[in-house]
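It is worth pausing here to work through a concrete case rather than discussing structure prediction in the abstract. The textbook approach is simple: state the sequence, then state the predicted structure, then interpret. We follow exactly that order.
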Amino acid sequence: MNNGNTRGGASGRGGSGKKSGPSKPMNKARKPGTSAAKPAKDKYTDEKPEDAPKTAKPRSPKAPVVKKGQDTFAKKDGYPRAKPAADKKPSEKKPAVKKKSDEIRLNKYISNSGMCSRRDADIYIASGNVKVNGKVVTELGHVVKLTDEVDFDGVRITPEKKEYILLNKPKNFTTSGDEDTDMRNVMELVRGATKGKIQPIGRMDKNTTGLLIFTNDTDMVRKFSQPNQKSFKIYHVSLDKNLKFEDLEKIAAGVYLDGHKLFIDEVSYIEGEAKTEIGLKLRTQNVKVVRAIFESFKYDVLRVDRVSFAGLTKKNLPRGNWRFLTEQEIINLKNI
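Step two, the predicted structure:
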């Protein structure tokens, strides 16, 4: 009677219960309880034994996509979970120190003045070649006010763009700061031209008319204020009486004023005008000198009009009007 320990006709005690496939005849009988031998390929045929069914590998769960900017805070199934953006703590940043509207870094101040680049300005600062309000500053990143006085390598500079304005000055305007009922300052005439701190080159009294240059270029102001500067100015002078020819020749030979000889480049009668109208060419821009020349010969000067300044003329510039100089005119002034 069958004890129930065998399956599907498998005989013998201790059988493995596995179904055995076809096998090569063996010379020796198989011992009871041993499993069937592994089928082998017949060397006389191309037939292969049946392959064992392949077992599919379990698929791993798909990793979640972590979006840019999200943090990971835990792992699930071996993969990090995306941290919700709402849970992200805001980064703690130090509040930026705001500069006042009238403050600027020293190297930018120097760069804006046109002296050099910011990088080169740092080199000058570190070398001790920059002064602020008379004191040497070597600290990089130093902040200054627009009202501070900055000396760069011995030269006073301003952080403004260099601007040059030519005015045809009318009467009853003066370059002095004295207040009078019948005198107004020339700055009124160019007030809307620029926000820069411009100033006139030289002085003019209320009765003198003609060309006057305004600029914030302190180097140019200093250049044309020197007594030995080489630029020519031409004046149209009106006298109270005719200029004698012998006096004209004496003026052309040079005039002594305060013990110093003043050289006159050219003096002549104005063609087509009365002998009271004189043209005078010289290098000084001091209008007082022009008046003193004729007064030394007992003539009263009624009017002085500067019609040319360092090659600039009044062409297309009516009385009381102004204009900006062209780039070429600026170059010419700097090269004089």
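Step three, interpretation. The CA atoms of residues 155 and 219 lie 8 Å apart. The helical segments are 106-112, 118-126, 218-225, 245-253, 287-295, 327-335.
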